[in-house]
Specification:
Chain lengths: ~200, ~375, ~300
């Protein structure tokens, strides 16, 4: 059983304005894929959920969004923390989840196991929030697509080995597909399903 | 020389001052109190509560007064307030068998347990203007003032014999929708359709219901029962382990009994149309039940041949707050788009004239 | 009843904002696709910008500078009313200057000034479905988008050409976004369509009554539908703005008298004022005198 203090603490001190500011960072991030930005407001969730990932949960999750957690997160105090602060129901079924959270270093399931939306309603897909080692310093990838002028280079460190395969498969089913938020510490990098990635 | 028009802000402020003046009217007369509206224009208050989906007589009366008696404007004001209210939970379904009825009539039986109870109805009043209402009236005490007791539902009588379909159950595992929290999607299940009809415009539903009687999607209706009365609203609190009463509301329920021949799978039985409305509004509840039945085409494999059976048409256009907004938005400036049309029509006109006159003349004109 | 006066920052409750924010993120991820959302009743009528207002209220923060235009003008009554609403419920800084705004809510126009990175343009949309007037049923149009079946739209445009010699659509002219979704740009004149293409700004579209949100991210391809033998063209005006002398801008026709007298002036009032402040003058410009200054206030 987690310490009560872990569950009840660690949310935004000023929910209205902090959620707004985190959302704007996410909105700009999805509008300009590949940009690394720092949240001005952070959460202090129980370990092993990262601070930026916790801020995303507080900003976007509530009663109407079922949340899937990686096995390690599910075993921690995180489900109670999310439930207490957002009211979001947990699900063990990946393709029921509106949001999925995966902590640093954990195995990442292939993206097609999550909700991908339908051809009629491609918006009904999971948004994955994955914490990785760092958002720069890794192997360079060229990103192109909506929101990117010509092309941009990203170099996240600690992506799963099969990441590019997962991403290419996700890209191939457009307009269906998952959307991705990569976090590291208090920074964030968003990859909507429109972004094409290839090795430099 | 030309100076651009400015001063939108001042114009708006002046318009609102004038509105307040007209609302108040002759200052020599006392202004109407909210209590007076609640007590003496109760059916206006009921309609506003029903179509705003908010049960609060005082706020509905305030809206009626603020809107100068414009019902749709009042509904709009109360809806806009409702939408900002926090949501504590979902109440238990009200049990209409437990309504303390003050009116209850059935067209399908001459007499029945609990009897026919006319209640506070306009029926059988002769619609003669009553000069006695001009002056301060003295009104005799009614024979029965308080809502009465529980009486059995007519639909339960038919149900006991197995001659009517069951009381609208949704399929196993169906999660009850909430029209105010989810985007609309078609085809729409009956729970959401009923929510939309319950807040739908009385006049629109009345006209659609009327059309089914005139052959546009006929349903062979009988009023099984109309009942009006008070019923308790309860909220289940898992923390305390039982449902607590939140209070009492007045509702009107109509169970329409409709013909159905049966199929290979189902024995011949009557079908139902259902109407439930806040307050006292028989016209609305009856219209709703007729339209509800007409919309159930998929359940009975009926062909959609009339407007009242077409759920996308009915549900998309039943909301008077949406309808009035969009119709009235046409008075907003559209001059940018009009300019685009004007330009095109002038161009097409030149082409037309050129083609008509032909040759040199036409070319010259078109070049101008 | 005294609680009536207390509303959350930017009017909407947090739960509603979250729901709209989620819809906005999905809209950005699927450019041109209409995301259904549970639109709320707003304290202004449906059809008067409730979609745009809900989008603005959900993205707006205390650091933003808001501009609201209707028909390109900051001083049209509905623009004044919406701007006043946000000043009241969010105490937000407002401006009429396109350059200074971080969020611009608009009805029927895109500002003449090229929008920059970091700016967000929020469109008020009456009918978000570009196929609606060809097929009234949502169930059908949704299928057409799913199957990328846009033949009907081309047939409609081509019928125009056959009948009139022109594509007769002058506003709400359909576009294709990122080569996938056909999208209604809202009832802006087609003159503004090219501004949407590869814009640096984020463009968000809110349709309150129809309960849809859609988006065009920055640097996104937005192509007006056309035919090889009838390429897309924008409106051209014969004369420059009578007040500031601007060319290649959208003009309003102002009727001056009952004898056919008329003049053409910028529809974008900020653009026109800015040019005049920088010394540009059209042939009808009144030189400021104390009296005309007063009349203008």
């Amino acid at each position: 059983m987690a310490a009560q203090s872990q569950i009840y603490a660690g949310a935004f001190a000023d929910p209205v304005f902090q959620a707004q500011s985190v959302f704007r960072t996410l909105m700009d991030g999805f509008a300009r894929p590949g940009t690394v930005a720092s949240f001005s407001a952070l959460a202090a969730p129980p370990s092993p959920l990262g601070r930026a990932s916790g801020a995303v949960a507080l900003t976007l999750c509530d009663h109407d969004t079922s949340v899937w957690l990686s096995p390690a997160l599910a075993k921690s105090a995180v489900p109670q923390w999310i439930a207490f602060h957002t009211g979001a129901p947990m699900t063990e079924t990946k393709d029921d989840a509106r949001f999925a959270f995966i902590e640093k270093g954990a195995a990442v399931p292939s993206f097609d196991q999550f909700a991908l939306g339908t051809q009629e309603y491609p918006d009904r897909s999971t948004t994955l929030v994955i914490e990785i080692e760092a958002l720069s310093g890794g192997r360079s990838l060229i990103a192109k697509g909506a929101g990117i002028k010509d092309e941009t280079v990203i170099a996240p460190e600690g992506l799963p080995d099969l990441f590019l395969d997962f991403w290419a498969a996700n890209r191939a089913i457009f307009p269906r597909g998952i959307d991705l938020v990569l976090t590291a510490g208090d920074a964030v990098l968003c990859l909507p399903r429109t972004t094409k990635l290839e090795r430099e | 020389m030309y100076v651009a028009v400015k001063g939108g802000e001042a114009a708006i402020a002046n318009a609102h001052r004038l509105l307040a003046d007209r609302r108040r009217g002759d200052r020599a007369l006392p202004s109407i109190t909210i209590e007076q509206v609640v007590e003496q224009l109760g059916l206006a208050v009921d309609r506003v509560m029903a179509e705003a989906s908010l049960y609060d007589r005082a706020l509905a009366a305030l809206a009626v007064r603020q809107a100068r008696g414009d019902m749709i404007e009042a509904i709009f004001i109360l809806r806009a307030y409702r939408t900002t209210l926090p949501r504590f939970g979902y109440s238990e379904p009200i049990d209409t068998a437990k309504i303390k009825v003050e009116r209850r009539v059935s067209a399908t039986y001459k007499d029945l347990p609990g009897g026919q109870l006319l209640g506070p109805t306009f029926d059988y009043t002769h619609r003669l203007l009553d000069p006695s209402l001009i002056a301060e009236e003295t009104v005799a005490e009614p024979a029965v003032k308080e809502p009465g007791e529980h009486v059995m539902r007519v639909s339960d009588i038919l149900d006991g014999e197995g001659l009517i379909e069951g009381d609208g159950r949704m399929p196993e595992g169906h999660v009850m929708g909430d029209l105010t929290r989810e985007p609309m999607e078609f085809p729409m299940a009956r729970d959401l359709r009923l929510q939309a009809l319950a807040r739908g415009d009385e006049g629109f539903l009345l006209a659609l219901a009327y059309s089914t009687q005139r052959g546009y999607g006929r349903t062979h209706p009988f009023v099984g029962e109309v009942r009006i009365g008070e019923v308790e609203v309860e909220l289940d609190l898992p923390e305390v382990g039982f449902a607590v009463s939140l209070g009492v509301i007045r509702v009107t329920e109509c169970q329409m009994v409709n013909q159905f021949k049966g199929s290979a799978k189902q024995p011949p039985q009557f079908t139902r149309g259902y109407g439930l409305v806040f307050g006292q509004s028989e016209r609305k509840a009856m219209s709703m039940s007729l339209v509800d039945r007409a919309l159930r085409t998929d359940e009975f494999s009926e062909d959609i041949v009339a407007p009242a059976q077409d759920q996308e048409f009915v549900i998309s256009h039943a909301d008077n707050v949406q309808a009035t907004g969009f119709v009235e938005h046409l008075k907003l400036p559209h001059y940018v788009d009009f300019q685009a049309e004007l330009d095109l029509v002038r161009r097409m006109r030149r082409d037309y004239e050129a083609a008509r006159t032909g040759g040199e003349d036409g070319m010259k004109e078109a070049a101008e | 009843m005294n609680d009536l006066a207390t509303y959350n920052f930017a009017y909407l409750d947090e739960q509603t904002k979250r729901m709209i924010r989620r819809a906005i993120l999905k809209a950005i991820a699927i450019p041109g696709y209409q995301v259904p959302f549970a639109s709320r009743e707003m304290p202004m009528p449906y059809g008067w910008g409730t979609g745009g207002v809900q989008v603005t209220a959900s993205i707006l923060g205390p650091g933003d500078v808001l501009k609201v235009i209707d028909q390109g003008a900051d001083d049209t009554t509905n623009a004044v009313s919406i701007r006043a609403f946000f000043q009241k419920v969010a105490n937000v800084a407002v401006t009429t200057r396109t350059k200074e705004a971080t969020i611009i809510q608009t009805r029927h126009r895109i500002p003449e000034e090229t929008l920059k990175e970091g700016q967000t343009l929020v469109y008020q949309v009456p009918i978000p479905e570009p196929l609606r007037f060809l097929e009234p049923r949502e169930t059908e149009t949704r299928k057409m988008h799913a199957l990328e079946e846009y033949g009907l739209m081309h047939v409609k445009l081509y019928e125009d050409i056959a009948r009139n010699g022109h594509i007769a659509t002058t506003y709400a002219y359909p576009v294709k976004v990122e080569g996938r979704y056909v999208m209604d740009p809202s009832p802006t004149p087609k003159f503004d369509n090219p501004k949407m293409h590869m814009s640096e700004a984020l463009q968000l579209f809110g349709a309150g009554r129809e309960k849809r949100i859609y988006a065009v991210p920055p640097y996104t391809e937005v192509v007006s539908l056309d035919f090889e033998d009838h390429p897309f063209e924008i409106q051209k005006f014969d004369k420059p703005c009578a007040l500031c002398g601007a060319e290649n801008v959208y003009l309003d026709e102002v009727v001056l008298d009952d004898k056919g007298g008329r003049m053409f002036v910028c529809s974008d009032t900020d653009h026109c004022e800015d040019r005049r402040a920088h010394g540009h003058a059209g042939h009808m410009l009144a030189r400021p005198t104390p009296e005309s200054q007063e009349a203008a206030e």
